[in-house]
User: Fold these one by one.
Assistant:
Number 1:
Amino acid sequence: MNDTMRSVSADLPAALGAAGLLTIDLGALRENYIALDRRAAPARAAAVVKADAYGLGADKVVPVLLDAGCRDFFVAHFSEALRLRPLIGQDCRLFVLNGLLPGDEPVCADAGVIPVLNGFEQVEAWKAEAKHRGAVLPAALQFDTGMARLGLSLDEARALAADPAGLEGIRLEIVMSHLACADEPDNAANAGQLAAMLTAAALFPETPVCFANSGGLFLSPDYRGALCRPGIALYGGNPQNGAANPGKPVVTLSVAVVQARTVPAGTAIGYGGTLVADRPMRLAVISAGYADGIPRSLSNRGSAWYDGVRLPIAGRVSMDSIILDITALPEGTLKRGDMVELIGDHQTLEQIAADAGTISYEILTSLGKRYRRVYRNPQPLKA
Ligand SMILES: *Cc1c(COP(=O)(O)O)cnc(C)c1O
């Protein structure tokens, strides 16, 4: 279910037997990268392509970003870096955010992958590898500036900087940290993390600073350092809560109706009978469920759209199907094979995420394998 074409041809059954049709607009992705890179200037924008480029397919996404001028890539796991290394040439930097696990060091060095060193143990392991090879190895160094996730504390950073042999055999490419609240521009934690980052970075004055994620790029220019690390904004997610989305949507998702029916008042609908029709209702069953990444938390809460009309989810989301209340549509409107929208013009990624009690990131990275995936605008846009 993985094909590349310019647009969805109207005369094809749109989902071709798949659970639904997922379109990924590589032209919009490209425009989003270029806009973020311009916004970052004079810093550069890297691209975070972890989790298979937020579920959209790193093998399709990475070539577009390379063509758009991106030269720095971040993944989370070392296994992701090894998979992407052949796509991302040695003239580009490929960083692993989760750093080194014991035993990864030789393969990491052989592959030319750059670990983000998140603590003393990782620094020591990388130094040992460099010594063993009699080589200098590249690394990023992360500080924890207020998230308690990964990175050296300020005290540890001071100790490392004060030790003349602290980074022996290591060439620091960047120093970095990660913002915990960048999607909330008014959150005071941002300024606190910035101050801590500037303090830590001053200990390594020769090394470029890499700090802002998508949200950070929409805080003040102080957050941008030399290299920014956007992820979600590349893929059409809104980097800031409550503000208009500055980017272009990349993903649409529509799902086929497999059956429409009318039920009398009193009918229990779906698993557990959590919804009982209080009037005669018209229902449509669509061909996707939680196994396709439509969260079960949308049961009796979320909706799909057809022809500008909101169709509430009736009862629980099943593994492979969802029941919609289509009573609001004129009778006979929605037929077997018709496609309803889950993500698109009427329902953004953020809206479906909010209904599900989650965030756009989780919706994207959960998108299932059973959709027909159509990559639009695969060619570079002509200027
Ligand atoms: C995921 C991640 C990013 C990208 O964040 P977005 O909010 O998607 O832009 C950047 N840096 C680190 C350390 C991350 O884990």
Number 2:
Amino acid sequence: MSAIEKQIPFKTYLEESEMPKAWYNLRADMKNKPAPLLNPGTLQPMTAEELAGVFCDDLIAQELDNTTPFFEIPEEIRTMYKMYRPSPLCRAYRLEEALGTPAKIYYKFEGNNTSGSHKLNSALAQAYYAKKQGLKGVTTETGAGQWGTALSMACAFFGLDCKVYMVKVSYEQKPFRREVMRTYGAEVTPSPSMTTQVGQKILAEHPGTTGSLGCAISEAVEAAVTREGYRYVLGSVLNQVLLHQSVIGLETKAALDKLGVKADMIIGCAGGGSNLGGLIAPFMGEKLRGEADYRIIAVEPASCPSFTRGVYAYDFCDTGMVCPLAKMYTLGSDFIPAPNHAGGLRYHGMSPILSQLYDDGLIEAVSVPQTRVFEAAEMFARTEGILPAPESSHAIRTAIDEALKCKETGEAKNIVFGLTGTGYFDMVAYEKFHDGQMDDYIPTDEELAVYRAKLPKVEA
Ligand SMILES: *Cc1c(COP(=O)(O)O)cnc(C)c1O
């Protein structure tokens, strides 16, 4: 099977002129809408006025809009997108050959920008709207560092100040990530810190804690609401972020249509759900409207299994409980994956949009242990050449597993997965894997029950 005989190119790029001109809002086609964010005090849906102190006005409008199917992408954002988009849809010929599968494997590669991930798609949009509103700057949290990097870049492009609260363990393990952010002009603070009241409180209660995304969110929100001209921005989970990330799916669909290929299944890793929500958006739209059917698979770490072992309930988005409540598949806002967990995707909850779709049986979810994820990452690096992010490698794992099932049944299915980014800053994790020092700690039911018991009591 020589690749040259095949009809489909290794890489399919759209023309710049074929890039999406509007984001697609999947909620418009959902019969069961995602549940609204609730005010933690009144337990009533958050209004635009209540959100206005935290988020930018245009982003609030996007967050609350469940009916408008398309939002035009402002020309300024499209111009920035053109610096690294359209991104290629690649055919994994060498991986297919190594697996000996009749399946055809495609991946949408979002790692071709300095942030190393898809997160720049939403960072640019959020920075643009903050600037448009005349704000001075934005605050945010970052875990592994991709979101902080993406936002730092976007703020540099649009001339905004950027304050990043970085989970302390990542700050210490990934000093170069911090330096990249500072290169783009961001101020980076390890979280929890003494610079916020919530940080001081968390440190008093848990001295020596290495932090979590939930803590860093609380600090970033406080830093925004206590400063004139600042708002808070978030890189995943929220409806607005999935909206921006729909560029991934719209481009993927356009490229597949160009090739005359119909996907059978679409696979993505799921942390807070933004890349998966964006990748599947137009396909799920067709599914919801009854125009086509696809298998859609969310892949999560076995050590942080929000979909497969969480509950669908209202929960806090952060540890300090300063954010609105969101109804989502969650492990509980205090849940922190075991310290040996290396692969990102550590958020305790999941996008409300994806949570509703999962609850409606429209998407499937699987969880995979991290050593199997790194095995897949290594195989992918050795065949396709790209060094994948551990997060993305969850999707690679499941794509490989599905391709191997096709080998057994002899079916030549079209498998599409999202390759969300590159793993150059994750070499400590790769090193642990290569040295045989990585294990697969999976939380017990008893452990998960402890966190679940602390969910806020809200009638859904
Ligand atoms: C942040 C990140 C993810 C997970 O976030 P989602 O919001 O679930 O998409 C996946 N891959 C990479 C490379 C990331 O940086």
